[in-house]
Design goal:
Rossmann fold, Dihydrodipicolinate Reductase, domain 2, 7-stranded parallel β-sheet, binds NADPH dihydro-nicotinamide-adenine-dinucleotide phosphate, binds the ligand O=C(O)C1=N[C@H](C(=O)O)C[C@H](O)C1
């Protein structure tokens, strides 16, 4: 049985991660961390009924991970928190499933260095849904055929999302850029901004949109739009908990969703 802890347990993703851990075979909840509701039963906080796991203060993370015999921490919080918490987790010899987005290259290096120096296992993915990871493959193929078309990435999310553009939109642009041997990115356009051959990246925020990503390949007299729409955050939460089960039996290292999905 794998012991899993959740950080940001009372967040939108945190609650769904708890639900998936409870429902999935082979994994159980060992600890939960948050900034609020410290000492309360996390199941009651998340309105899932009593789970006999209390919300712990992030300041006590190293001790709590040890005492609870946690094998893996699933982190969907905010980049500034993950970059502090992930090294504590890795230094405790515990594996990591990171869903947080919005890392700078420097923050990402700090996290990867912590996993590598401790010889632990981790996965850092901007999107744990099966569909989005297939969407990335379709983008690679489409870019090969339409390499000289104008390419624009457009994402839309709910009005509470803190980071922009989304991690998924950034990864979509990277996947296309890698396929085409390197492309510049431009974020939105305003004023005198004639189009060059760069990839445009655009963020829309409104209402309760779970997560839409569209990539437009536009030519002289036609266009193709490749689109993914998430209907529920469960697409992400179930993928993350399945990843936590998968990495428990993996060799130390940093994995991608391609490894987990067998692509
Ligand atoms: N990879 C994927 O598949 C997906 C990734 N995401 C990403 O996951 C992240 C979280 O999204 P979402 O759940 O919507 O956001 P929420 O704001 O709903 O949840 C984040 C939670 O983390 C808490 N938190 C903040 N700082 C810390 C800290 N230092 N230690 C522990 N907890 C902390 C927040 O507390 P408080 O509210 O008090 O600040 C909040 O409860 C985002 O980066 C988002 O982009 C989201 C969906 C899918
Ligand atoms: O914050 C969200 O909600 C989401 N964030 C992820 C991202 O930034 O790509 C994934 C998903 O689109 C939902």
């Amino acid at each position: 049985m794998i012991n899993a802890a959740v950080t940001g347990a009372s967040g939108r993703m945190g609650k769904l991660l708890l639900e998936n851990i409870i429902e999935m075979d082979g994994i159980q909840l060992s600890a939960a961390f948050d900034l609020v509701n410290i000492g309360k039963d996390v199941g009651e906080v998340a309105q899932l009924g009593k789970l006999d796991v209390e919300v712990s203060d992030v300041a006590d993370m190293a001790t709590v991970l040890k005492e609870s015999k946690t094998d893996v921490v699933i982190d969907f919080t905010i980049a500034a928190a993950t970059v502090v918490n992930a090294p504590i987790v890795a230094d405790a010899g515990v594996d990591l499933v990171i869903g947080t987005t919005g890392f700078s290259p420097e923050q990402r290096s700090i996290i990867e260095d912590a996993i590598n120096r401790n010889n632990t296992t981790g996965i850092i993915s901007p999107n744990y849904s099966m569909g989005v990871n297939v969407f990335f493959k379709i983008l690679q193929e489409t870019a090969k055929y339409l390499s000289d078309y104008d390419i624009e990435v457009i994402e839309a999310h709910h009005n509470q999302k803190k980071d922009a553009p989304s991690g998924t939109a950034m990864r979509a642009a990277e996947v296309i850029s890698e396929t085409l041997g390197g492309k510049d990115f431009v974020y939105g356009r305003e004023g005198l901004a004639p189009r060059e051959k760069e990839i445009g990246i655009h963020a829309v925020r409104g209402g309760d949109i779970v997560g839409d990503h569209t990539v437009l390949f536009a030519g002289g007299s036609e266009r193709i739009e490749v689109k993914h729409q998430a209907h529920s955050r469960n697409a992400f939460a179930s993928g993350a908990v399945k990843s936590a089960i998968w990495i428990a039996n993996a060799e130390p290292g940093i994995y991608t969703m391609d490894d987990i999905l067998g692509f």
